[in-house]
Amino acid sequence: MLTPLGKLGFDMGILERRIRQKENMRTNILSVALQLVKDEGWQSLSIRKIADAIEYSVPVIYDHFENKEAILFELSLDGFRLLERTLEKNKKKYPDPAERLKAHAEAYWNFAFKNPEYYQLMYGLGMPCSGAGKIKPEFNCFRDFIGEAIEGIVKNKKSTDDETCFKIYAFWSVLHGLISIVMMRCSDIDDSTMNKKVMDDTVEAFIKNL
Q1: Burial of 159 from C-beta contacts in 10 A (0-12 / 13-18 / 19+)
Q2: Tens digits of per-residue pLDDT, 41-99?
Q3: Measured between alpha carbons, how far is 38 from 54 in angstroms, rounded to an integer?
Q4: Which fold has domain 1-65?
Q5: 87 in the Ramachandran plot: left (φ > 0), alpha (ψ -120 to 50) or beta?
Q6: 3-state secondary structure string, the chain?
Q7: According to the model, what pLDDT value does residue 129 have?
Q8: Is the pLDDT of residue 167 over 80?
Q9: 77-210: what fold?
Q10: Average model confidence (pLDDT) for the chain?
């Protein structure tokens, strides 16, 4: 017979195991959802398909996520965190803000085409943006990193910083626009070298005019 202290330890062990099981199930659901998207695209994703893929009933999925939108929201956060880890490396590697901004642009470009499923979800290409009204710090990670670099360039050049916020969004808009053109028209724009050169030249010109 368990003592009160032993019973408490036993109950805590059960609770911890259930928490781990729930976390593992959430991770599995997200992993399967992402793989389904890679195979079939975001528009075809459904709770039913996820349940069938992991061989559980639909109610089991709803035990872990309120709806499909909640799954998309969590996946978008995974994408932002993945991008942020790359940008953080640039911050340490390039002390010069101009070189750092170029590295951020390069990282953003490479991330988009190495992880198109994440990028399309994160920035709503061809599908509704997920998690409407749910603002998380991760959503602004790229803005924050390029903003820090742009502010550094402006300071070094002793330029006016009255429109720094505008410049941050202008820079981001140009990059996102170029990526969107390529990503949404991949059937008739297939010269990746030319597309990348346009991006590089645009970044150089932007920095020169700061």
Answers
A1: middle
A2: 888 889 999 999 998 889 999 999 999 989 988 999 999 999 999 999 998 899 999 99
A3: 16
A4: Arc Repressor Mutant, subunit A (1.10.10)
A5: alpha
A6: CCCHHHHHHHHHHHHHHHHHHHHHHHHHHHHHHHHHHHHHCHHHCCHHHHHHHHCCCHHHHHHHCCCHHHHHHHHHHHHHHHHHHHHHHHHHHCCCHHHHHHHHHHHHHHHHHHCHHHHHHHHCCCCCCCCCCCCCHHHHHHHHHHHHHHHHHHHHHCCCCCCHHHHHHHHHHHHHHHHHHHHHCCCCCCCHHHHHHHHHHHHHHHHHCC
A7: 46
A8: yes
A9: Tetracycline Repressor; domain 2 (1.10.357)
A10: 84
Cα separation, 71 vs 47, whole angstroms: 9
Structure tokens at 127: 């599908």
Residue spans of the domains in the chain: they are 1-65, 77-210
For residue 134, what pLDDT is reported?
Answer: 52
| Residue in the block written with tokens 């750092």 | 100
Quickly tell me which residue has 């390069």 as its tokens.
106
Integer Cα distance of 155 and 174 in angstroms:
22
To the nearest 10°, the Cα dihedral for 49, 54, 59, 64? Answer: -110
> Which pLDDT score is estimated for 132?
45
